[in-house]
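Title: Prediction job returns without error message
Component: structure pipeline
Severity: low
Priority: P3
Assignee: unassigned

Description:
Job completed but the reporter wants confirmation the result is attached to the right record. Sequence as submitted:
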Amino acid sequence: MDILPYIESFSCRKEQLQQRNSETDRKLPMVKIDQIELPDFPLLLAPMEDVSDPPFRVVCKENGADLMYTEFISSEGLIRDAIKSRRKLDIFEYERPVGIQIFGGDEESLALAAKIVDVTNPDLLDINFGCPVKKVAGKGAGAGVLKDLDLMVRLTDAVVKATRLPVTVKTRLGWDETSKNIEEVAERLQDVGIKALSIHGRTRAQMYKGEADWTLIGKVKNNPRINIPIFGNGDIDSPQKAVEYKNRYGVDGVMIGRAAIGYPWIFREIKHYIQTGELMAPPSVEERVQVCRQHLRKSIEWKGPIVGINEMRRHYANYLKGLPGIKDYRNRLVTLKTMEEVEAVLDEVAINYKDFVMERQQIELVNYHENCPL
């Protein structure tokens, strides 16, 4: 169901719901980030450059994401008032709780960016200390800060002091195999006031190669000194793995990035499996096409027809993955220039594959055009 038509009445409905269920809610298990209340074992949508925009966040929210983040935003870009950076600040009431993520390597710039973010009134502010790509890490931001823990602490402290918002951090195990210092990082960042920590189970040197190692994530969570929520990230591509890692490592929740691209149903599937122990049937071809169409329309609504259609091209292959003989349709979709043309081809797919039964398949986790899907 599309939740956008209900935005205007969101505040009223939220207040009524909270009043009606206040006594019950206090008895339910929950995870708290400062004063933000999340359900037990929340599912977080990772901040992903060129992916986690409002249109994508809509379809993830409707499919069960409990907390979402914007694309990461350059602190320098915000200060310069760059159009692209400012555009990423767009958040909407129906998304809450939602966080804005910033990155940078200069204390003054990060603090000023935090004050700019503060004005937009997100629920929290996240600092990216995990992006491994050269254009970010090579300039001393993102995962590049992992080489200087004292700087990381100073940067975090500057942001915490600059904003009224709860501050969280997203990072990796360390710079490389010889410097897996996440246990020290967790303690030191907690000491300067962060309210939650999300950890990707690879080093910067690994990029996205090999399997994510959650062992150290579990050690951080089980450290008696740590009293903030710890969220694990990396290779969560099925309900079974989410539950397995929940039980094995004791994390407070999981953050999902690449597995949600073209497959926002991953959130509801995990929740269903946790609640029932049973796997949901995968979305039908009709549902895939319907959500792809919704994503397209929201993309055009937010970005305009030219940019909206062009940027949707990166998503079609993921929405239609697993359909035999789909390549010709994909090739057509990435050349079309109007919403009507795209929707006509999507309608063809829905009709021609209406009797095809999708199977739940392992989601292929790929490095999504060298952005930072942590």
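Comment from assignee: result matches the submitted record. The CA atoms of residues 70 and 241 lie 25 Å apart.
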